[in-house]
Fold:
Amino acid sequence: MPGAASDREFMQQALALAHRSGILPYPNPWVGALVVKGGRVLGRGWHLGPGTDHAEVMALTQAGTGARGATLYVTLEPCCHWGRTPPCTEAILRAGVREVVFALRDPNPEVAGRGLRILRSRGLRVTNGVLADRAAAANEAYLKYRATGLPFVTAKVAATLDGKIATRKGESKWITDEAARQRAHHLRRENQAVLVGVNTVLADNPNLGPRCGPEFEPWRVVLDSKLRTPLRSQVVGSGRCIVACSANAVRANYLRLERAGARVWRFHGRRVPLRPLLKRLAEEGILAVLVEGGSETHGSFFDQELVDRVFWFVAPAIIGSSRSLSAVGGRGVERLADARRLRDAQVEPAGNSWLIHGNLSRWALKFCHHAVATAAAARR
Structure:
């Protein structure tokens, strides 16, 4: 039987497999799996997206008859319900696996410990909580969605040393160099939607795509209370555009945008309410949202404490002027003690700039503490 050190080693390999897919799995979690017997890996699996085989099934299929009497390592509790695919617990039992080791219980109410109990009731040895902290960090978007019904929000900013994103005349191209912008495009690949305010669309006509192939095309979400988004803008032309407006927006503009291929969502109030918008995005299966500005949009998200992670590109330049745009507008905070501070911040070079990134929320840590405590209680 594998020891604790071996369990950690194999779970680390499973975690590496979880992100092997080039396709975002949302609204499902990132999951990796290994089938191991006698210290040898017989099967490897990862989730390729909704409707495809889960990681456990891929690994078991690869292992074939070798899975009988083996240990299955998986980064999340195996599912036990029918969805687009059959329950993984059934596949595990059919394969004759002797032991299952997983990192995190699945917070999905349809699983939530039931997978563990089913396997144990059929005589399998089941261990959970192995590398729970790393598994939680890899699935923050999924964990936040399960806890709140909202997507995980990342704010991306490119600003000068004095925190400006444009000159007093509105010029903003380019604050960072091409290498730094390529790093930003990779961020778009990691999110299902890129969100901006309509002023950014009017000023820059951005594409908001990652420019690395149609398989990575995110949704473009535009906050546009009065429906001023141009029909010929790149975001509308992408064919994956959602324009969020207020209920009193002009109906003719609504119809024109829809005919041009955009989806138009109307919300009560004079301005688009961010939390209901995020909730609707999550209901559509969009669990990872990148907010790219501009200043007032970033300000609204920070003021309402809706930002989970920050990627901030700092260019070695100074613009100056009280009339030039700051990276984050809105109300801001009155006391320094209330300033939003990044946790576990890291700094790395990005072209001619520096990239500072870190988290404002702690979804992974909160869930991990609960998971570890639950696992410890189960072992007592």
Q: What stands out?
A: The two ends are 20 Å apart (CA to CA).
